[in-house]
Design goal:
heterodimer; A: mainly alpha; globular; B: about 325 residues; 4-stranded antiparallel β-sheet; two-stranded antiparallel ribbon
Chain lengths: ~475, ~325
């Protein structure tokens, strides 16, 4: 914490020499060794360290991959396979990078939900939260750019779908679209700029991560009680060795899950179509983004109606970007004075509902919006016909035999008839994603602002120290 | 670890989401009865003899239409490859690989000193010969259908789980209904092939378009050709590849009986290897890595317990 006095004492001559010129060892010591950290951080707080590891892993493997990758539409697909086949341990490096993207997002989602639950975005940590949102935005951009590079079918057609979204913006949409593509369509020039930006953005992420850690170390860590540190002696322990070892354990457990994917199922998190070389003339049956973007894809597709002059496509794009933008406003949307949802029994219910809504939105994003979740009734058969007198009509049947007989009769009588399926009305993925999208926005724009003013929170503990000792409710009588 | 339970739940939900990506229409591919040796946990390896036989099937059957442009003959003799032997650690010295390559005449990528094209026997460093000079030639020779390159076909089908792609190849190659095909004379006087179905609710007749073949494992739509209840049209679709592996189609060098399912099993194993030639190395490295990480986690757990032993938290 900023108010915390430095305890670093340079011992050797060279350390003293350096400390009076560039106190970098002092900085590291104060930030990662003697930094006072609340005693009560649980395992959900280890994901910050896990994310730092993820970023480092992605940058290191990515730099090596870039040495062997060719950003050219005729060679990109083959060069990625060549890395897997001919570069020593290239298969390992590429699998780590590919699975690493998924693991990075898995960790960032846990990290964000944790921040949401314990109110880590509230004063005095608003800037910390905003920097985190910027990192998340940069991560999504980087992942999207990177997914383009193997130049498979999903790379090309996924990029097409996303870039076309910008075309929905009035007036400036189309110029932005061609500016992103570098031409009239997604082609070699697009691949080259995507590669360039994919290499650039991770270093920008690293820069914002430094700011994120800085913004963390000014107010210090939040903690599961949401009560600020009052007594450094009683409430905190030094970061090292207490949290280096705890984070270290969590990181290794995380790496075990990581390794299971890398070694046993490297392709299970991706889409098989991306092993078909990109072909602009053949569009895949279902274009879906990677799993970590599916909830936003579901929100985009949930908007199927026009409002006034705005058509569904534009509204979908607004909703999708709005779903991310609303995160930036969160510190000012939540009006509650109590940080941790541990002491907000009502908000807690809505929070778990929000987590489930996000997971279900992911499911919707992966599914065909017209597919039924709950069918109401069964599909019927409809025969459309034009009889010999030129009269048009339709007749609906439950069973096939009478329907076919009726069709055949019409044809024999000199008319035209065809038989088709009439889908039963159903509760589809489209409907589910509309409900969930409504809840997603209501959670931020309605529930958190209103609930903060109206709910009656349970009593917070007076201090971290007392909470650890089991005095969760404020002491009625003076302690001791 | 009750803390990690929500994490696992999340992973489960993810898997659910991914399985929901399954394209409708085609019948779900299945592994052969004996399963895939490479898909066994924790360190399943490819059945090397089967991969060798599969190469023979590819060479004698598939390669007349399907290229494998990401493979070179040397790959066959590299560690994990079907013809790798310890005494020839350099695949270019492997006499078997050299002989296999030399049987094939290729167009040298470099012309001679006069600029004329050179045809010569392949060497291990050459890539697999493509059956057609370009995609248009391939389409022209196959009624407009492009036979896909098979280099990574096992990774390009299924959902990325171990064995998904091989199961697809196996199911497709054994899934043709050629024994059920009947022929009648159509209205135009030409022969029409059709299949009568009578399975549960799928009752009716499926007419095979000329030059196409029905296969329940091929993604597509059968309703336009289906005379019967469209709500219960058969799974699958039509593809331009005729059934390729009738019993005895190849004569195996090792004397194995070449039944349809044996050849399909072998060629699926070969393509599984070809799609990811380093999978054997990956699987054998997996166990030591996992053991290392688990031991490290245990050590860190006890360090954590020891360091925090005097701190209430």
């Amino acid at each position: 914490m900023s108010g915390h006095e430095s305890t670093y004492e340079p011992k050797t001559g060279i350390e003293k020499w350096l400390d009076s010129r560039l106190p970098i060892i002092r900085l590291a010591h104060d930030s990662f060794v003697d930094f006072p950290t609340p005693k009560n951080l649980n395992y959900w707080y280890t994901f910050g360290g896990i994310l730092a590891i993820c970023l480092a892993v992605q940058i290191i493997t990515g730099v090596v991959l870039a040495m062997h990758y060719t950003a050219d539409i005729d060679q990109a697909f083959g060069s990625v396979e060549r890395i897997m086949r001919d570069v020593p341990y290239g298969w390992l490096i590429r699998n780590i990078h590919m699975v690493g993207a998924s693991m990075f997002f898995l960790a960032v989602y846990v990290h964000m939900f944790r921040g949401l639950y314990y109110g880590s975005y509230k004063a005095p940590r608003e800037v910390l939260w905003l920097l985190g949102c910027i990192i998340y935005l940069l991560m999504m951009a980087t992942a999207f750019l990177g997914y383009m590079l193997p130049w498979g079918q999903m790379s090309l057609h996924g990029a097409n779908v996303i870039i076309n979204l910008f075309g929905a913006i009035p007036l400036v949409g189309e110029p932005i679209q061609s500016w992103l593509m570098g031409g009239p369509s997604v082609g070699n020039q697009t691949l080259q700029r995507f590669f360039s930006l994919h290499y650039l953005l991770p270093f920008m992420i690293a820069g914002v991560v430094i700011l994120h850690i800085w913004a963390l170390h000014v107010p210090g860590n939040n903690n599961p009680t949401g009560v600020e540190v009052q007594d450094v002696e009683k409430d905190t322990v030094p970061f090292h060795p207490y949290y280096t070892v705890k984070d270290g354990f969590a990181i290794v457990v995380f790496l075990i899950i990581f390794a299971v994917f890398v070694f046993y199922a490297p392709n299970v998190l991706g889409h098989a179509d991306n092993y078909i070389e990109a072909n602009p003339l053949v569009t895949p049956a279902h274009i879906v983004p990677e799993w970590y973007l599916l909830p936003f894809y579901a929100i985009l597709r949930a908007i199927t109606f026009n409002i006034g002059p705005m058509d569904a496509k534009l509204l979908g794009v607004i909703a999708m970007f709005g779903a991310i933008a609303v995160l930036f406003l969160l510190p000012w949307l939540d009006t509650s004075k109590v940080k941790s949802m541990r002491y907000r029994p009502v908000a807690k219910q809505f929070f778990f509902g929000f987590v489930i809504a996000c997971l279900l939105l992911g499911w919707c994003g992966a599914s065909n919006p017209d597919n039924a979740i709950i069918p109401m009734g069964s599909d019927k058969l409809v025969v459309s016909y034009t009889d010999s007198a030129g009269l048009e009509g339709q007749r609906t049947f439950e069973d096939y035999a009478p329907a076919a007989q009726f069709r055949d009769e019409q044809v024999t009588a000199g008319g035209v008839a065809s038989l088709a399926i009439q889908k039963a009305p159903a509760f589809t993925f489209k409907h589910l994603s509309q409900i969930l999208t409504a809840y997603y926005f209501a959670f931020f724009l309605l529930i958190l602002p209103v609930l903060g003013l109206r709910e009656r929170p349970k009593g917070e503990p007076d201090s971290i120290h007392l909470s650890i000792l089991g005095h969760d409710a404020p002491a009625a009588a003076p302690a001791e | 670890m009750k803390l990690f339970r929500p994490l696992l739940l999340g992973l489960g939900a993810m898997a659910l989401g991914l399985s929901a990506q399954a394209a409708g229409g085609a019948k779900h591919a299945h592994a052969p009865e004996k399963g895939w040796s490479f898909a066994k946990v924790p360190a399943g390896q490819l059945d090397k003899e089967s991969v060798q036989r599969g190469f023979q099937v590819y060479q004698e059957v598939c390669s007349s239409c399907h290229g494998m442009k990401l493979l070179s003959y040397r790959n066959l003799g590299e560690p994990g490859g079907p013809f790798y032997y310890d005494e020839y650690s350099n695949a270019n010295d492997n006499p078997l690989v050299k002989a296999l390559a030399a049987e094939i005449e290729i167009l040298d990528p470099n012309p001679d000193e006069n600029g004329d094209p050179v045809y010569r026997p392949a060497i291990p460093a050459d890539t697999f010969r493509s059956p057609y000079p370009n995609d248009n030639a391939a389409k022209a020779a196959n009624g407009g259908a492009l036979p896909p390159d098979l280099s990574v076909i096992t990774k390009a089908r299924g959902h990325g789980a171990d064995g998904d792609g091989a199961s697809y190849v196996y199911s497709l190659m054994t899934g043709y209904k050629d024994d059920k095909i009947k022929t009648k004379v159509g209205d135009d006087g030409l022969n029409v092939n059709y299949i009568d179905f009578d399975e549960d609710e799928t009752v009716g007749t499926l007419t095979q378009p000329t030059g196409l073949y029905y296969n329940p494992y091929f993604a597509g739509d059968t309703t336009p050709q289906w005379d019967g209840d469209p709500r219960h049209a058969p799974y699958g679709g039509f593809l331009a590849m005729a059934p390729q592996l009738p019993d005895g189609r190849v004569e195996y060098i090792d004397g194995t009986e070449a039944t349809t399912s044996q050849m399909a099993y072998d060629v699926a194993n070969f393509l599984q290897w070809a799609g990811d030639p380093k999978q054997g190395q990956r699987k054998s490295l997996a166990l030591p890595v996992m053991l290392y990480l688990v031991l490290l986690a245990i050590l860190l757990w006890f360090s954590y317990k020891r360091i925090w032993r005097n701190v209430e938290h």
